[in-house]
Amino acid sequence: MSLAGRVKDALLVNRTWKQIVLKNMVWATLAEAIVRGLKLLVLPLVARAFGPAQFGQFAFAYSFASMFDVVYDAGLALTTTRELAAAGRNAELLPDILLMKVALGVVGMSALGLGMVLITRDQATRISIVVLGIAFFVLEMVNLSFSVFRARQRMEYEFLVRIAQAVFLLSAVGVVAWRAPTVLNVSYAYLVSGLTTLGLAVAVMPGGLWRVRRRVRGEVWGKLLRIALPLALAGGATTIYMNVDSVMLGAFGRITETGWYNLATRIMGVLLVPTSLMTVVIFPAFASTVASVDQTFRRRWDAWSAAMIALGFYVACAVLATSDRVVQIVFGPDFHPTSLALKILAITVLLIFMYTPSYQAMIVFDRQRLLFWTLFAAAVMNVTLNVILIPVYGLYGSAWAVVVTHVFIMCILFVLVERATPLRPLSAALIRGALGSGISACLAYIAMGAAGAHLWVVVPVGAMVFSASLFALSKVGVIPARAFL
What we know:
Layout: H1 3-12, H2 17-50, H3 52-66, H4 69-73, H5 76-86, H6 94-119, H7 123-151, H8 155-179, H9 183-204, H10 218-251, H11 255-271, H12 273-288, H13 295-330, H14 337-364, H15 368-393, H16 395-420, H17 428-450, H18 455-475
Helix pairs in contact: 2-3, 2-8, 2-11, 2-12, 3-7, 3-10, 3-11, 5-7, 5-12, 6-7, 6-10, 7-8, 7-9, 8-9, 10-11, 10-15, 10-16, 11-14, 11-16, 12-13, 12-14, 13-14, 13-17, 13-18, 14-16, 15-16, 17-18
């Protein structure tokens, strides 16, 4: 076979566990790199076109509409991936899932309409919320197609649709920012790009998979809801503590601070790309082998956990070293307060990297109910802290509320995974790996501080020092040699 044939075979044909994971990693990495690169252009485009106050208005509408994503999804995305990955014969459930999605869309839009009447009296903001709500429902339908692609280990199709989605969004927002930069027009840009992407997903998905069941099959709905409802409730709690801070800042009348803070949380979302990327790639592979938790399974899980911890430490130290310059260059001096909020949220980024494997373990081993109660308690804590801290400290109070919330989540998840799954989130090897990663991150931070003001120098220097330090520590035995293998 020729070299081109071997490359094509490796990237388009599913064979062994390792090859499938690597193939999916290639497609997912390419998708994330290109999509995030394109979407990174959207954020400064909107922020600079609007300025802090008007961007704050858009951020308020966007965050409020985002809180209803959990209703549109209701845990069906992960449920679809898990069920189809575990048993391909479950493909006949897709028409039922589509009918459930339509019903959830009606419920979600009704709840959104009621909520926006209570949260704001501004008519323009209300219209923007409705438009964004429809756009997010459309994108949830697109995400359902991604669930099918992931379950079938066909990340190349998801790559195609995601790239197109980012191009559509950047094009639509770019036209609006150039010709008529208003909050409502940007909301319409999100809707148009979502509809265009859904059309492409329908075209790419094999025939018959977009057929909607014409009647409710009670036994099927019951089965799906038993699996999906705990995930939906957990997702709802997550959505609350991820968006409620921006909504509450707006409700307290701090619209400009809402813009500054929401910008920091959007950047944080970009920094968390490796967590979603690794989860997308690893989750179906682990879900398909969960029936046999042997030494190989545990070794793979520990290697994933150690890699996530190392990435988290480097990302956090890079944010601390570069956030002032990044905000100044990309968004302008009007968004300077975003920098300090981003530094505080860097702690949250590290925490999420550390507990993501434990979060996924709760789903893989069917412990969604425990996961829900953990996230529900975290949501209550986050709302309470925001009520206390926002009136006094504004956006920085919201940032620290998020940090405390994620410390709570991490601690509880470590305990639950230890007691309710066959895995150990705090094994000696992982603790030593975290210690080595922390030492390496400190050395990288010092190196970045000494490298000067040019970002194109600072970031690579930090990465090289971090990697060299990890390697050196593994050689002297501080980090187990197999921790990242």
